[in-house]
Design a protein that fits this description.
28% helix, four-stranded antiparallel beta sheet, globular, alpha+beta
Length: 357
């Protein structure tokens, strides 16, 4: 990772950056379930200033989406192109790199409606709401189109940072979905849950493949469970908190699921085990044998921990533990010899034998 936070530093950062106005959520006190969501609707509607699409939304990104967290270079932070573990393939300078036309990735950035604006017929304030309209590479935005977010079973297209699209792997939906990288899944989920709350009184009349025609649950069960799962797997970080504060200064309302992450499951519940628990049935590990003292572990579902054991004769010794999680993990600086690598995801685990030559 470009920026590594210890638990202590992360907790300090969240405390330092949190600027919830005193009494802001008083009307939600003691509520749970959909009544809590309705109370939050009243809170985040009050004070919401409908700014212009041009030029004000472009200007908002100067404070809401500066990359001071991964590269610390003040470029545009685009969730569809940011590489959190290496060098970005391209970066954008505010205003001067606005789209415009594009011919491929890296041409320019534009305004991505995480809830496609075709769903609400480009009406305002949905069209201009900075809590779900984010800067993104124009070409990747076009590839995402109006597909719902999801996890793909097979990839038909991949962006330079690893975002991809393809048929949905989640039970309940099999059409094309767009899958962002793991680093931003929780960020996007909280934006989508904000949208379901802020526009509760209107959303039941709209049509989209991930909507279920209600004003309480709002999303189809497969999508609702996936958004809650992403929220739980990729928790709130300092970047989101800073963005939420900047959005409040700009627009006058907040995303409650960044301020109070616990409200997500209090409203929508915890996804069933069949969706939230990952399996390791299709895990692959390569190259094996390896001559570079490194291997890559890949699985369609999230890997939560990796333990490495060395074998010498009949003795097995614990060598290291990697707490990084994701669908693809690279292990480096492995010792020579025969290794056992234990992978864990939820209550599932599997052991792989690797030879390091």
């Amino acid at each position: 990772m470009k920026t590594i936070f210890t638990t202590l530093i992360l907790l300090f950062s969240i405390t330092a950056f949190t600027q919830i106005p005193p009494g802001y959520y008083n009307a939600a006190a003691g509520l749970t379930g959909y009544p809590l969501k309705t109370a939050l609707l009243g809170i985040i509607t009050s004070g919401h200033i409908d700014k212009s699409y041009t030029p004000q939304l472009w200007t908002a990104y100067n404070t809401t989406d500066r990359d001071n967290f991964y590269d610390n270079d003040n470029t545009v932070l685009d969730m569809y192109s940011e590489n959190p573990t290496g060098t970005d393939s391209y970066t954008y300078t505010y205003q001067s790199d606005q789209c415009g036309s594009y011919s491929g990735e890296g041409s320019c950035y534009n305004r991505e409606h995480l809830m496609p604006q075709s769903v609400f017929n480009s009406a305002r304030p949905m069209k201009t709401d900075v809590h779900h309209v984010v800067p993104s590479d124009g070409y990747v935005n076009g590839q995402r189109g109006s597909f719902p977010f999801g996890e793909v079973s097979s990839t038909t297209w991949t962006s330079q940072n690893g975002s991809k699209k393809g048929p949905c792997a989640t039970p309940g939906y099999s059409n094309i979905v767009f899958e962002p990288i793991d680093e931003f899944k929780g960020d996007i989920a909280r934006c989508m849950l904000y949208f379901a709350t802020r526009y509760e009184s209107q959303v039941s009349s709209w049509s989209w493949s991930a909507l279920n025609g209600t004003s309480d649950q709002v999303y189809s069960t497969w999508f609702k469970n996936l958004m809650v799962t992403w929220h739980l797997q990729d928790t709130v970080n300092a970047r989101e908190i800073t963005r939420n504060n900047a959005a409040y200064v700009y627009q006058g309302n907040r995303n409650p699921y960044i301020d109070h992450p616990e409200w997500v499951t209090q409203i929508w519940g915890t996804p069933p085990v069949s969706i939230s628990e990952n399996t390791l049935s299709s895990v692959s590990l390569y190259p094996n044998p390896t001559t570079t003292n490194s291997v890559t572990i890949s699985n369609p579902n999230r890997i939560e921990s990796v333990e490495v054991y060395t074998i010498l004769g009949q003795s097995i010794t614990h060598f290291s533990q990697n707490t990084a999680s994701g669908k693809q993990i690279e292990l480096t600086n492995l010792p020579q010899g025969v290794l056992l690598i234990k992978l864990t995801s939820g209550s599932s685990s599997v052991v792989k034998r690797v030879v390091v030559e």
